[in-house]
């Protein structure tokens, strides 16, 4: 009778070991598949975010450049209007608008002021475009850091199917040994 109990417990041990091994391996496999799906979705989201960042940068840069072009045209128009008014006032006042003298100095001052305004506009435009690009680079780095963090978390959650199976086997063997020990104790 003792041998039959021992054989039965060994069969039960083998069965629980096999079932536990298989169950743990399947659980690890399902978990890893879910992680892989999640990471594929995270990758698509990161790529979409990158596209949005690029599109935003491009739109803002285009808008800034267009605004700058309009402002440059306004400044040029203001310059032409100012020169016209100065020449009209000079002609009415009997001042010369060519060669040398106060009339030419006034025109040169108006030109210098207009040139300065154009330079300030160009500098402001360049600064604005640089800021847009810096914001883009910052967003890009944040997006990458977020995606890398997700990858790291996923790697920590993934499980080796082999090790999961080994753990299941050890658990099944432990259960079988416990049952065998109990059976032997009861048979005594």
Explain this structure:
- The chain is mainly alpha-helical and 188 residues long.
- The chain has one domain.
- It has three helices and no strands.
- Helix 1 (2-93) runs antiparallel to helix 3.
- The chain is rod-shaped, with a radius of gyration of 40 Å.
- The mean pLDDT is 86.
Strand/helix succession = HHH
> How many strands, what sense, and barrel or not for the largest sheet?
none
Mean pLDDT: 86
Radius of gyration (CA) equals: 40 Å
In terms of per-residue confidence, which ranges show pLDDT below 50 for 5 or more consecutive residues? none
- Helical residues, percent: over 70%
Question: How large is the share of residues in beta strands?
Answer: under 5%
Structural class by secondary-structure content: mainly alpha
Short description:
This protein has one domain (2-187). The chain contains three helices and no strands. The chain has helices at residues 2-93, 102-157, 161-187.
What key attributes describe this structure?
single chain; 188 residues; mainly alpha
Blueprint of the fold:
Layout: H1 2-93, H2 102-157, H3 161-187
């Amino acid at each position: 009778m003792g041998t039959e109990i021992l054989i039965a417990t060994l069969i039960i041990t083998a069965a629980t070991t096999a079932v536990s091994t298989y169950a743990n391996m399947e659980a690890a496999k399902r978990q890893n598949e879910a992680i892989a799906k999640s990471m594929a979705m995270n990758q698509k989201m990161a790529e979409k975010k990158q596209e949005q960042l690029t599109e935003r940068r491009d739109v803002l840069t285009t808008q800034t450049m267009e605004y700058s072009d309009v402002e440059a045209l306004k400044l040029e128009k203001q310059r032409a209007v100012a020169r016209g008014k100065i020449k009209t006032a000079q002609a009415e006042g009997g001042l010369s608008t060519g060669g040398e003298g106060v009339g030419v100095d006034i025109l040169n001052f108006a030109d210098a002021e207009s040139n300065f305004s154009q330079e300030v506009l160009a500098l402001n435009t360049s600064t604005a475009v640089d800021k847009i690009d810096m914001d883009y680079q910052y967003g890009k780095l944040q997006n990458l850091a977020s995606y890398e963090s997700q990858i790291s978390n996923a790697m920590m959650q993934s499980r080796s199917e082999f090790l999961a199976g080994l753990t299941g086997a050890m658990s099944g063997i432990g259960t079988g040994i416990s049952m065998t020990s109990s059976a032997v104790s009861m048979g005594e």
